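My main concern about presentation is that the manuscript never shows what a single data entry looks like. An entry of this sort, consisting of the sequence and the corresponding C-alpha cells, reads as follows:
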Amino acid sequence: MSPQAYARTGGWLYLVIILIGFCTQFFVRDRLVVSGDVTATTDNILASAPLWRMGIAGDLIGRVCDIALMLILYVLLRPVNKNLARLAVLFNLVQTAVLTAFELSLWVAGSLSGNAATLGAFEPGQLHALAYLSVRSYEYGFGIGLIFFGFVCLIEGYLLFRSGYFPRTLGVLMALAGLSYLTNSFTLILAPAYAGTIFPVLVLALIGELSLCLWLIVKGVHLPNWEKRALQLDR
C-alpha cells in the first residue's frame, strides 16, 4: 500500500471509531443511564437489553478499528521519529486494553438488571445497586483509559507538527486534544465534583481528532515530503 492508501484507510477507520463512540455514548448510555437514580437506570437497561448489548458490541468493534488505526498512524508517522511513533503505539495499546477490559462492567450491569431470580442471595434493590455501580465503574475506567490516549495525542501532535507532510495546524489541534483528555480525566479522578463543569473542554478533543480524520480522507499526506523523510529513515 502507498502512503496515500494508508492515509485514506486510516481516515475512514478514524471516522468509524468517532461515529461508533458518538452513537454508543449518546444514543445508548446517555439514553438509558439516569445519573444518581439506581432504579430508573436498571429498569431502562432491562427494558432495552438488546440496545444495551448493541452498545457493547459497537464499542468492541471500535476497539478493533483502534488496533488497525494504530498500525496505519505508525507507518505514516515513523519517518519523523521511529521511537516516538512506537511510543504512541504502546500508549495506544494500553488505552485500548483498558477500555476493552472495562466493557465487562457494562456486560455485568446488563446481566444484573432484573436478575433476582437467578441470584437469590441478593435482593432486587441490591442487584440494581450493583448494576448501577458497574456502569459507574465503566465511566471511571473510560476516564483512566483516556489518560493514556491523551499522551498518544500529544506524541502524535508533535510528530504531525514536525513531519513536513502534514499541516502544522493538525499537530497543534491534536496536542490540544491530548491536553483536554488529560485535564478531563484527572479532574474526574482528583476532583469528581467538578467533572461536569470541565467536560466541555472535550470539544477541543473532538475538533482535533475530527480534523485529522477528515484530512486523512480528503488530502492524505504530501507524498514527496513523506518519501523524502522515509528515505532519510532508511539510511
Notes: The CA atoms of residues 5 and 220 lie 8 Å apart. The mean pLDDT is 90.
